[in-house]
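Entry 14. Structure prediction run on the chain below.
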Amino acid sequence: MKASKIFVAATLMSLAASGSALAFHDGGAAYCEGCHTMHNSSGNKAMGNTRAPLTGVNYLLQGSDQSSTCLNCHAKPAASAGSYHILTTDAAAGGTVPANYTPGGDFAWTKESFTATASYGAPISSPGERHGHNIVAADYGMAADSTLLTAPGGVYPAGNLACSSCHDPHGKYRIVDAAGTVQRPVVGGSATATAGDVNKSLPINGSGSYGALPTTTEAVGVYRLLAGQGYLPDSVTGVAGITAFAADPPYAVVNSAYNRKETTTDTRVAYGTGMSEWCSNCHTGIHNSAAALDAGTSFLHPASSDSTLGATVLANYNAYVKSADFTGTVATAYTSMVPFEEGTKDRAALALHALNDGTQTAGADANSNVMCLSCHRAHASGWDSMTRWNNKSEFLTVAGAYPGTGVVGEGGYGQYSMGKTQAEVQATFYDRPATVYATYQRSLCNKCHAKD
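Output returned:
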């Protein structure tokens, strides 16, 4: 990284409180003391964790653990939410609504539990730990999942789940050419080296999340600093059954103004290929590839780069507008509530689609495929199983409005709101007006399956 960029990154890090730290990672490893502390002391004060000054912290981190260290920059109260923030620290069920609208969601939902009573008298519970990945961040009151002790479909232990379980904090993975080749430079003969690693690669010159292309002399980082083949966090090294990642990061591009409400236009992430394969690094047992239907996955919902939509689903997606309305056209069919992969590694093409101004609304084509994020958010959502909409009730809207506690009439039924206020329900739809949908809108599974 150029010396000038190191200076800029350091300067921007000091301005994090004002929301200007976009260049801190710059696609790869940031400056070391942005995350680490050599002695856990600055002016005889601890470096943002719960340990006393001059008392050691695991991995010399500034936070009490890996995720707390990340959240030192990526967590803010609602009044300062936005940009690179992923946790609204003062959100509270029935009160302050999670205020971050990133494509991955706001981790605050994992701290909010909801209860309600259905119209037929049954109690309803929606615990916070069911709303997303339960990263362990002691400094922010975030604990491991108490129910799912390992990753569904895998063996990754819940007690070790951290931001660094998915993201490589040192950002060593990089894209080095127009074909999308991913490399990780390692020391020759290293125990962590894999067949795909190299002894020498190109230095990273910037983020790969926003469409920048590598040059002949400089690489760009992978999407969201996600880890790739050969990655194994030190915190799980030696844990029984845990193996290094087998899949590289997915190909995707997003507009830099990605943390925003979608009141009038969608934030379109141009997902290229590889997302479900990457998720299968931990969720192997529930990854369904069309090429492996004879391996016990034929009765699981498909989600892979070879699971193209097929003629019927493709036609449904592009025609579906809302319940009972199939008058849509491919030119305006896209919705970020049900995204898809485009089936390409072409970053230049993806960058043209990754806009949030309402100009990129084209729907799916014959190359498009379903992926994990077609239904789920990567970090968290307001609904159980971190889905993008409520999959436990028949209606998403009632009489032309979102349901919610305190709403008079059918819209107040607990099975529709799952205990959320109307404002909280609307926030899960990224503030879309209810009028986008039918007066009695049913599940968005119908965007592909058209059963309503």
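The CA atoms of residues 274 and 397 lie 33 Å apart.
Filed with the rest of this week's runs.
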